[in-house]
Prior knowledge:
Helix 1 packs antiparallel against helix 2.
Amino acid sequence: xxxxxxxxGLVTAAVAGAVIGLLIAPEDGKKTIKKLRKKTNSLAGDxxxxxxxxxxxxxxxxxxxxxxxxxxxxxxxxxxxxxxxxARKQVGNL
Length: 94
């Protein structure tokens, strides 16, 4: 399961729990709404931070893959050049 799905599930469960808890709590409507807004803003901030972290990690992984891919391409190009040189020598010996 991906990290984003786990984070989204945790945040969704936290929001649902907070909403249920606040709706069941014996307080007047204005206080409840104020608490809901505060908790929602807090959880939204946590979600944004988690998504930004995931984005940064994905960017780092992509950069690493690109670097590895370039190194592999250079290695393959070097081998291909060696094969071409060998083939030219073989043709020259005919």
